[in-house]
UniProtKB/TrEMBL annotation:
Any single Pfam family the record assigns to this protein: PDZ_2
Keyword Oxidoreductase: no
Protein name (Swiss-Prot/TrEMBL): endopeptidase La
Source taxonomy: Bacteria, Bacillati, Bacillota, Bacilli, Lactobacillales
Recorded family membership: Belongs to the peptidase S16 family.
Enzyme Commission number(s): 3.4.21.53
């Protein structure tokens, strides 16, 4: 081979190597996820209540965290950029595939919306009721005998022909049976009722169980029709802000007084507000969107609690620290309940 041919070949190989490296650097998926500040969106377009439009100025804003699978390039970017964190795929998805993970997040969002509707309607003295559908399946344990039949996203409505009004009712009934004894489970899969009989397995505390991780599946009914469309958002953390938006529209009260008010937190049946993840990123998103008030879940800190908290700070502590450093002019307000938020808005016009 001539010297010139060797030189050409070397250049071709170097170019090919460079192209492959750039492709790997930009596109190769890593077993990591990047969490970064998402958006703060007005809830005005998310909530529609018949006969109760939102005519007040300002906005209640739902905040989000942007989640993406890391590539070498974005991994490096996340390392060099503030308010980005890198988590293992296992920590983020719990080992679930993308479709299953998205399905669970969608259910969490719908549950949050249901609780927000219930809390807001009760506070507004409007008619609202709940109907317990059954057990929503969040995860199937590896030792479960039902794993080839029941899937994540299914709802168990009966066991041995009996329906209960709470998950505890189902659990107590099953716990009285012996490991290995057959159990007939009736469940909904993609809206279709199915039945399967399999033996129970040993679960925690040596009790008999189906071998699933579960939560309640509840349907909310209101006299005044309400529709809430969360778009592409998932997870339970929008509960508090949805409840505030629904309450203001139902009552017609002007709680915002023209302000952009953001926040986060789960909402429970008793109106209490629960902590969430990534609150520092949500503060940044709210600040970029022009919010001047940010509602943060409050729990009393203790040494044991702080040991397991994100960055060893409660939601309120982390939100306040982030605002002081990177969101000047934003007031972080601690709330333990829906009523706390309403009281603050009424007393701080």
């Amino acid at each position: 081979m001539k010297k010139q041919d060797k030189l050409i070949m070397r250049r071709i190989l170097l170019t090919l190597f460079a192209v492959l490296f750039i492709g790997w650097f930009l596109f190769w998926p890593l077993n990591k996820y990047i969490e970064s500040p998402g958006t703060a969106d007005s809830l005005r377009s998310y909530v529609k209540i018949k006969g109760h439009p939102d005519k007040q100025k300002g906005s209640f804003m739902i905040t989000s965290v942007y989640l993406q699978q890391a590539r070498p390039a974005t991994y490096l970017w996340a390392k060099l950029t503030p308010y980005n964190t890198i988590e293992s795929k296992q920590a983020v998805t719990g080992g679930q595939n993308n479709a299953t993970f998205d399905k669970v997040q969608d259910f969490y969002m719908q549950s949050a919306i249901n609780e927000a509707i219930a809390n807001a309607y009760k506070a507004a003295h409007q008619e609202v009721s709940k109907r317990y559908l059954g057990i929503y399946v969040l995860e199937i344990e590896k030792n479960s005998k039902f794993k080839k039949d029941i899937k994540v996203g299914d709802t168990i409505t009966k066991v041995n022909g009996q329906h209960f009004d709470t998950a505890q009712g189902f659990q107590k009934y099953i716990a009285k049976r012996k490991v290995g004894s057959p159990l007939t489970v009736t469940y909904l899969h993609d809206g279709h009722q199915q039945t399967v009989t399999k033996p129970l397995v040993k679960i925690a505390n040596f009790r008999a169980g189906i071998g699933i991780v579960l939560t309640d599946n509840v349907k909310v009914h209101t006299k005044i029709p309400v529709k809430v469309n969360p778009g592409q958002l998932g997870g339970p953390s929008g509960g508090l802000m949805f409840s505030l938006q629904i309450y203001q529209q139902l009552t017609g009260q002007d709680l915002r007084h023209g302000r952009k008010i953001a926040g986060t937190g789960t909402i429970n049946p008793d109106g209490s507000v629960g902590e969430i993840g990534g609150i520092d990123k949500k503060v940044i998103a709210a600040h970029k969107a022009g919010a001047t008030i940010f509602f943060a879940p409050y729990v009393k800190p203790s040494k044991l609690l702080l040991k397991y908290e994100e960055q060893h700070m409660t939601n309120y502590q982390l939100a306040k620290k982030t605002a002081q450093k990177s969101a000047p002019g934003m007031k972080v307000v601690p709330v333990s309940s829906f009523n706390d938020a309403i009281k603050y808005l009424r007393t701080h016009p």
